[in-house]
Amino acid sequence: MATTTDFKAWAAAHQQRIETQLQAVLPSPEVAPPRLHQAMRYAVLGSGKRVRPLLAFAAGEITSADPARVAIAGAAVELIHAYSLVHDDLPCMDDDVLRRGKPTCHVEFDEATALLVGDALQSLAFQLLSEYRVADDTAVQLEMLKLLAAASGSRGMAGGQAIDLAAVGASLSLPELEFMHIHKTGAIIRAATLLGAHCGSRLEERAQAKLDHFAKCIGLAFQVVDDVLDTEANTATLGKTAGKDAQQNKPTYVTVLGTAESKKLAAGLREDALAALEGFGGRAQRLRELADFIVLRKF
Fold first, then answer.
1. Integer Cα distance of 251 and 249 in angstroms
2. Taking residues 86-91, what's their average pLDDT?
3. Would you state the pLDDT for residue 3?
4. Please, what is the angle between helix 51-62 and helix 186-198, to 10°?
5. Is the dihedral angle over the CA atoms 233, 241, 74, 210 positive or is it negative?
6. What whole-number distance in Å separates Cα of residue 56 and Cα of residue 61?
7. What 8-state DSSP symbol labels residue 92?
8. Structural domains of the chain, with CATH
9. How confident is the model at residue 266, as a pLDDT?
């Protein structure tokens, strides 16, 4: 793996920074309603690789963004991601009992509380992007709100999840599978990257398009790798129930392409992502390293 000690130190420092930011913006369990706030903190804090905020911080380095601003944007994205996991694990969705190495939110608390946790985390994400100054230009900040909303909604993550639920037991073509995951997984990864960049100086249109292409490629690669790991890694390594997709008869990259071709696809997407960063020079080093981390993890 191309990940260096220097990158590991950078990632650890920024993971701690986002953890501190999340601790600060999440309501205290001492504040009413205490059980809901306790469950929100349980679902978000103390676990997770924070890949999406890391992408935001890395993209922010391209535009010389203030890390304090990126921390807010990264926290907003992570809150959306956490809410999606809480809802994804509910009995009416994937019905899972383990997430990030601990009982899922509805198991630790109850289904009604877990539902409200997701609702409240989503609302808090947009509160952060409207309450804090994360861009110099208010028009850019409004665009950031629109970007995260679109990535989260029916034409983004929620829509992808709807397609995923409808696909159980079905046979999807590769383009259909890619369409689903561009929305379900890729939309929020793309949003994280672009939000981080928007916290700094404005990119020229061509540079913006290249960064967007990087994010789209790495978002798809992330899902391909997840599908492979679901078949090759164990529950302890994954922090969630291994083999769940196969148990639920869900179409995945492995079922459509096979393991070897899925790995080749992930490698190709990584190469495309890295090629999109040409011209950014050293400013994109962390994005390159994150691409390696995402695609090469535990294969």
1. 7
2. 96
3. 45
4. 40
5. positive
6. 9
7. T
8. 5-296 (1.10.600.10)
9. 96
pLDDT tens, residue by residue, 26-39: 999 999 999 999 99
Q: 245 or 58: which carries more pLDDT confidence? A: 58
Distances in Å between the alpha carbon of 249 and those of 92, 165, 169?
16, 11, 5
Measured between alpha carbons, how far is 54 from 103 in angstroms, rounded to an integer? 25
pLDDT tens by residue, 72-82: 999 999 999 99
Report the alpha-carbon distance of residue 170 to residue 250 in Å, rounded.
7
CB count in 10 Å sphere of residue 206: 9
3-class secondary structure, 2: coil
Distance of CA 170 to the CA centre of its chain: 26
**Widest pairwise Cα distance in the chain:** 51
Number of C-beta neighbours around residue 229 at 10 A: 17
Residue for token pair 């899922």: 104
Question: Alpha carbon of 8 to those of 153, 251, 295: distances in Å?
Answer: 33, 34, 16
Separation of alpha carbons 217 and 95, rounded Å: 29
Locate 207 and state its tokens: 């540079």
Separation between Cα atoms, residue 119 and residue 15, nearest integer Å:
24
Q: Is the pLDDT of residue 241 over 80?
A: no
To the nearest 5 percent, what fractions of the chain are helix, strand and coil? 70, 0, 25
**103 close to 97: Cβ distance less than 8 angstroms:** yes
| Cα-based angle 45, 12, 223 (whole degrees, multiple of 5) | 70
